[in-house]
Amino acid sequence: MPLLIVKSPRKMQTLSDSLRSDGKIIGLVPTMGSLHGGHLKLVEIALRKADIVVVSIFVNPAQFGPNEDFRKYPRSLKKDCLKLGAVGANVVFNPSMSAIYPEGFDTYIDPGRTGEILEGARRPGHFRGVATICAKLFNIVKPHFAVFGQKDGQQLAVIRKIARELDFDLEIVKAPIVRTEGGVAMSSRHAYLSASDLKKAEVIKQSLDLAASLIKKGARNAGAIEKQMRSLILSVPDVKIDYISFNRWDDLKELIRLSGEVMISVVVVIAGVRLLDNKIIKI
């Protein structure tokens, strides 16, 4: 079927009800648009599991802070639809702001402690916005599963938590991080960076690989591993570290001594742009 663009939440629900009645498996890939290779990889993963893949494109103001780049966030619906049509997506759900947040809207989902640490501590209210829009998308699109990338590891943990604790009847699929040839985790924010900035960003993945190597050799003290990661990252000019964190996957309890399944998160700032990456390691 040709790519179908749906604007109305009610029409999307009606379409999903019809597809489900016909026995179709629906997969959802939530995005804010400005699609890159990482997003398209999520769509490809969804296509392998679903009969119909719905890609939502909605720049969600509820997850942006007052000093963040909501108005500057790149928007390119026409280009996005061309990319999605080329890879075989079936439906684009592109609602208006008023359709998602009508006048007087004030119902939000608080994901608790999991949304208050790491990115949540630096961006208060961010994961409340993420949890709310995802809950609305789950209710509107009615997918059998939704695909989220590991690159935004804390976001993935928050979505898994609300899906489990609020009894959403769908599977949350974790997709591997898609990287540039130099190893940088793909992000729409790369549009703000020069080629030399992206080259500097390669040190993020290198620091995660260093941590993995140290753990493989028997290192278990998070502070000692972080010290070596910091030394490597700061050897690159104009790269600032926001934080490095070691957390249990997937309740995100902070770890001092590493054991079990661990998510190592690194956030740096290059040319004023925050770049996130992580690695999940079983010990």
Overall description:
The protein is an alpha/beta fold and 283 residues long. The chain has two domains: 172 residues, Rossmann fold (3-Layer(aba) Sandwich), CATH 3.40.50; 95 residues, Pantoate-beta-alanine ligase, C-terminal domain (Pantoate--beta-alanine Ligase, Chain: A,domain 2), CATH 3.30.1300.10. It contains nine helices and nine strands. The relative contact order is 0.13.
Write the layout of secondary structure elements.
Layout: E1 4-6, H1 9-21, E2 26-31, H2 37-49, E3 52-57, H3 77-87, E4 91-93, H4 97-100, H5 119-122, H6 126-141, E5 145-149, H7 153-165, E6 171-175, H8 195-216, H9 222-233, E7 239-248, E8 261-270, E9 273-282
Parallel strand pairs: 1-4, 2-3, 2-5, 3-4, 5-6
Antiparallel strand pairs: 7-8, 8-9
Helix pairs in contact: 6-7, 8-9
CATH topology of the largest domain: Rossmann fold
Sequence of strands across the biggest β-sheet: 1-4-3-2-5-6
List low-confidence stretches.
none
> N-to-C terminal Cα separation, in Å?
45 Å
What is the 3D shape?
Answer: globular
Q: CATH class of the largest domain, please? A: Alpha Beta
Write the CATH architecture name of the largest domain. 3-Layer(aba) Sandwich
Mean pLDDT: 96
Core attributes:
single chain; 283 residues; alpha/beta; Rossmann fold; Pantoate--beta-alanine Ligase, Chain: A,domain 2; six-stranded parallel sheet; 20% strand; globular
